[in-house]
Design a protein that fits this description.
Structural class: mainly alpha
Shape: globular
Number of strands: 0
Oligomer: single chain
Largest sheet: none
Helix content: over 70%
Radius of gyration: 18 Å
Order of helices and strands: HHHHHHH
Distance between the termini: 43 Å
Strand content: under 5%
């Protein structure tokens, strides 16, 4: 079942259960999918990887907004954004732990023959491709910097 089908099913369930906040978050996913399909052209279909990237982007937007709201002393708005991020995150695969990320990055560094910070771009490209959807980009970047330094 594709993410689009799953989102449509969850919209129906949230409507029947009258879960307003959850419904709003799920509808945001559907809207983002519709916009992405429209950008590609009429009759286009999104690949699973594209849908995952959209969902990751939505989660990141919600978390960034929540941190801004907290900085501006608006806890009620921050809480709403965090709740939406939590609902949207459930569509992503389980995130890897730092130890698992470190093991993958070490393997990539060894396989690619990277020897210092000058090879960071090459390692980051390989790491982000392999860990797409499984780890946050900031965590990957920090791990690569730490291991190459």
């Amino acid at each position: 079942m594709s993410y689009s089908d799953l989102v449509n099913e969850d919209i129906k369930k949230a409507m029947l259960a009258r879960e307003k906040d959850k419904l709003e978050a799920i509808r945001a996913i559907k809207a983002a999918f519709i916009v992405a399909r429209a950008d590609k052209g009429a009759g286009s279909v999104l690949e699973e990887a594209e849908e995952m990237k959209i969902i990751q982007k939505l989660v990141k937007q919600r978390k960034d907004s929540a941190s801004i709201y907290q900085e501006q002393n608006r806890p009620e708005l921050a809480q709403k954004e965090l709740l939406e991020a939590e609902v949207i995150e459930k569509y992503l695969p389980a995130q890897m732990t730092e130890k698992e990320i470190e093991a993958v990055v070490k393997r990539i560094i060894t396989d690619s023959g990277a020897s210092g910070m000058k090879d960071m771009g090459k390692v980051m490209g390989l790491a982000t491709k392999e860990l797409a959807g499984k780890a946050d980009g900031k965590v990957i970047s920090g791990m690569v910097k730490q291991l190459l330094a």
